[in-house]
Specification:
Blueprint: E1 2-9, H1 17-31, E2 36-40, H2 46-56, E3 59-66, H3 68-79, E4 89-94, H4 110-119, E5 122-132, E6 135-139, E7 142-146, H5 147-158, H6 164-176, E8 181-182, E9 185-187, E10 197-198, E11 200-204, E12 208-209, E13 213-214, E14 226-231, H7 236-242, E15 257-262, E16 264-267, E17 273-277, E18 280-284, E19 286-299
Parallel strand pairs: 1-2, 1-3, 3-4, 4-19
Antiparallel strand pairs: 5-6, 5-19, 7-11, 7-17, 8-10, 9-16, 11-14, 12-13, 14-15, 16-19, 17-18
Helix pairs in contact: 2-3, 5-6
């Protein structure tokens, strides 16, 4: 087993910003005495394989060089490894467009992340576990279905080249195509099945998504609870008026909104749905969601 960090670099993060800056930043960390090896991912999903192989080779300290998607893949590579019982550390060298998770702890981004690495400053955080028809996915930020996932799916599939503007295009189109539908579920807090129509549902480990959107202001990534935010079937005009409130967290006070802290969610859906997981979109037949308390040591 090695005490070195393995930096897994996503060159595509931040619209290619990571490819330009990662090398110099890693050299600077090494010059200051951080013991770190580095490897680059070559395609979406590759960091999952790299993290899994690195764990087998004895690495227990990882550095996500990219955005939330890079950290998401590293976590899935580790936690999907059968028999992975040793504690794992994760640090961040944020170079993505979102970096939502870090905003729960600091507004200084990379500066604070680097300070935490050298100070050995760590915090135990929870990890969400989503079981679906084909396997299991792990999340450190959030999962969402409904409008938020619909926007993300459209932006990723059609407007990704436009960056943040592409996301706004996705919002505009999905407002025009507005769907308010039921996602049949039940939680450990309310054992009866909920079949009410809604705009979206989010299941959160941390507060932010999309970089600055305060989707779950009551979430705490270390409380062993899932922050469940539900938005009822609001109309187009109401939605447009509400959108700015997603950035300061006051949307949860709307009469159609609700939130509760739960430990487990079961789903009973007739077909696969688009799910936003740590900013990425997957079409899944989801079955259950629970939380793994204090699963990961994060340098923050």
């Amino acid at each position: 087993m090695t005490d070195k960090f393995l930096a897994i670099v996503n060159p595509a993060a931040g619209g290619g910003r990571s490819a330009k800056l990662a090398g110099a930043e890693l050299r600077r960390l090494k010059a200051k005495g951080l013991r770190v090896d580095a490897i680059a991912s070559m395609a979406p999903g590759h960091a999952v394989q790299l993290a899994r192989e690195a764990y087998d080779q004895g690495y227990r300290r990882f550095l996500a060089v990219g955005g939330d998607g890079t950290a998401h893949e590293i976590i899935n590579g580790i936690f999907s490894r059968e028999g992975a019982t040793n504690r794992v550390e994760l640090g961040f060298l944020p170079m993505g467009t979102g970096n939502s998770f870090l905003r729960d702890f600091t507004d200084k981004g990379a500066e604070s992340s680097v300070e935490a690495l050298f100070a050995g400053r760590k915090r135990r955080v929870d990890v969400l576990r989503l079981c679906h028809a084909s396997g299991t996915i792990y999340s450190f930020n959030l999962l969402s279905v409904g409008f938020t996932a619909d926007v993300g799916a459209l932006a990723n599939r059609r407007f990704k080249a436009f960056g943040h503007f592409g996301y706004l295009l996705g919002v505009f189109v999905r407002v025009l195509q507005l769907k308010r539908r039921a996602f049949k579920l039940r939680t450990d807090a309310e054992p009866s099945w909920d079949e009410r129509r809604c705009l979206f549902l989010t299941f959160n480990n941390s507060k932010y998504t999309g970089g600055t959107m305060l989707i779950a202001p009551n979430a705490d990534p270390s409380d062993a609870l899932i922050e469940f935010v539900r938005w009822g079937p609001i109309g187009r005009l109401g939605l447009l008026a509400m959108l700015p409130k997603l950035y300061d967290g006051t949307h949860v006070h709307h009469p159609l909104a609700s939130r509760r802290a739960v430990r487990r969610v079961e789903f009973n859906l007739a077909a696969p749905v688009d799910v936003m997981i740590d900013g990425e979109i997957a079409n899944l037949e989801i079955r259950s969601l629970d939380i793994i308390p204090a699963a990961l040591d994060v340098h923050i």
